Predict the 3D structure of the following.
Amino acid sequence: MQRHLALMLYIAICGLIVFLVKAEWINAYIQIVIMFIGINIMLSSSLNLVNGYMGEFSCGHAGFMAVGAYVTSILNMWFFTKGNLFGDALFSPSLSVILFPVTLLIGGACAALIGLLVAIPSFKTRGDYLAIITLAVNYIIKSAIENIQTIGGARGFMGMRKVVNAMSDTVPLPWLMIWILVFTGLTVVVLHRFVSSTFGKGVVAVRDDEIAAEIMSVNTQRMKLIAFMLSSGLAGIAGGLFAHVLGYINPGSFTIMKSTEIMVMVYLGGMGSLSGSVMSAILFTVLMEFLRPLQLFKWVLIPLLLIILMMFRPEGIMGHRELPDMFPKLRRLFPSREV
Amino acid sequence: MPVLQMRKINHFFGGLQAVRHFNLNIEEGELRGLIGPNGAGKTTIFNLVSGFYRPTEGDILFQGKPIAGLRPHQVTARGLARTFQNIRMWNSMTVLENLCISQHFDMGYGLLDTILANRRFVENEKRIRKTAMELLEILDLRDYANEYPKNLPYGLQRRVEIGRALTIKPKLLLLDEPAAGMNPSDIDKLIELIRWIRDQFKLTLWLIEHQMKVVMSVCEAISVLDFGEIIAEGRPDEIRNNPRVIKAYLGDEGITHA
């Protein structure tokens, strides 16, 4: 039973949030902040797999997010709404409750596929090349979407609100919030299981010493592809959720600025630390909201914060450690290291 | 049938011929040494065998099957392990984790099993951990299972690295200068370890070494390499008195004992 303590705690918190939303005890603004925290947790922890655990430098995470966002949005519009792009709705809008997570997964799979296309040529070499390639891919994806007029081009793509409304009309629950909480939990669980398994630690072996990894029977090419696909796939799912929170997406939401924002979260929380990524995503999102009155000046303050952090704690807040390493009492909550 | 056969190997780095008409047979259970002056091409030969380079010409057969052109992890999975001149451990992970990861060739589960944490995952993780623990026990390293390799003294690090190579269950183990940077008492322990490993695990060993004490006392046969070519082969006492070997090491006006 103790093994599931952390999980049950999470479910309890989620239950509380859903209850509070349903009872309308927290307003729409707080709800959106909570949803963004969830999405940012997914983004930062998935990027940490590549930049932290694997020690590569990917800086086009927003590109994969865009793929997921567009694929999921288009599918949902096609399936459940009338008079858009594809004419009539393919399924009854009431089915959206069941099919929405499926479309998210398809969006994630498409993003993972793009991730694979990027990874195959770029992992032949190491280090800076991946940074340059992912940067380029980010631009390619953005420009490609801008030039496809059927999905709105640079004007963007909207109408996802209808899908969200269709879900709550069918079963009156805050569905979007529920799916965000579910997928955030899943992302963290999947990543935690991956990096704490002997299989996934192959990725860390690649970071520590790639030559030793290859000679000690780790299929380094395959490990890198798997990690990169997992990372981009999860970013795609986060993108799909992101699109539905906003109800409107345009290519401008997925620029290098967004990628940088995700990277700031990863480096703030610490390389190779899942709990660091989760904490920093929460911290960062909340901080951004508190700094809103400063308007543009927050973009002076936040990079400054990063510079100060890099000077005094270059490995990030948690740097290669997890919460239980720092507070041994928490080990009772996360005992999964010993199988 | 020899464990390892290398036939007419030629290897070029651009215009430089690093290995020249290299032929070699290593029989099962043998304890072979490879010596030669600096830059003779010893490590290049190990890199050819373990798959880092594909030989420009020639065949490499391991247990009768060609391995030239395979990726290093594929060569390793067939039972050919090696250690490095400068110890290469994964230093952000513990000794135990190091010995688990090196079993990647025989995981028994994949990504999906990891994510689902199903029974296949749990059982294989248990088996992998058990294999690693058993090996640590045999090598007298049990107390260091949860230490980080970089925090161990040099001699122990070498022992751990050899232990990690043994998780592959190798038929043939290549040791690239195992005694490099060791003090005399560590070297004595190493000699003992090498002999013991050969008997305990019934494997074939091939080592590069500069410390004559190790080579002469451990190896049953020695090949001497100079400028990518074998210049002498034979028992340690034969090699010791071979004039070509003395010349290669000491130059033309060499003193009579190496």
